[in-house]
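User: Teach me something about this protein's shape.
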Amino acid sequence: MRKLFVFFTLITFLVHSKAKCDNVVVKGDTLRTIFFSPFDKYPSIVKLREKLKDYSTNCTEDNCSFLSTWKIVDNRLMLTNIKNCECNQKKQSANLSDLFGDRLQKGMLCADWYTGEIWVTKDQPNSWGGMFAASFPRETRLIIKKGIVISVKKFVYPKPVKNSYYNNTDSLHKFIYTHINWNKFPNLPEHSRWEYFSFDQDAKGYLINLKQMENARSYEIYDKDQMEEIKRVAGLLQWPLYYLHGQPVRSYIAFSISLSKEMKDKFARPD
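Assistant: First, the predicted structure itself:
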């Protein structure tokens, strides 16, 4: 049985340095940062990492140098503590006074160097689009200007559709073979000859932009009308659509089908 190939490509490319596993307390609720940290733009981050080098870990779950906790206090983003990464078995808590001296305000450090967005969540990912490229059912976006939080907005995304053919080759093939107009394919090979096609997703998850993958072990090149029929049937397929940072995470999807007399005899509906 041929496998169903689904490749996820994010429209947002995420570049990862360290210091990614921060916590941010928003109105008493502790959330986790998603791939970003206020320390990403900290001018002395190299020296800070060196001072905290034994706080780090190489585990892929955290991919960070240390665990920072931030809190919004009087609309300012304040660092309240630094601990070792959760995967590090040695439990430590840094002395902020030793690290930042008289820059502290009531024992906290204002992220006055940071301008930009920070996305946080308390949910587990509902999809992984590749290494460190997850999507989440809910997110909160913080917009910060020189350490001042000027906007806090929550995003709740639609639930991804569920169907029988997503990640199930047999169900996918049955759907295609029972919906296709076989009369448009008069000269079919007797037995299975697998053709590979690729698609993108539209804003609702339906498949668009059909392409035949000629360099992927394809045997047949279909004419224009036949390609339109394959495109029509593929357009009935709705793939789960996920979101990241307020935008849909579009997927690149590829799968194989076999348009043969064998499949026509098995699945074609009576006229």
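Now, about its shape. The two ends are 29 Å apart (CA to CA). Helices lie at 45-51, 96-100, 169-179, 224-234, 261-267. If you'd like, I can walk through any region in more detail.
User: That's plenty for now, thanks!
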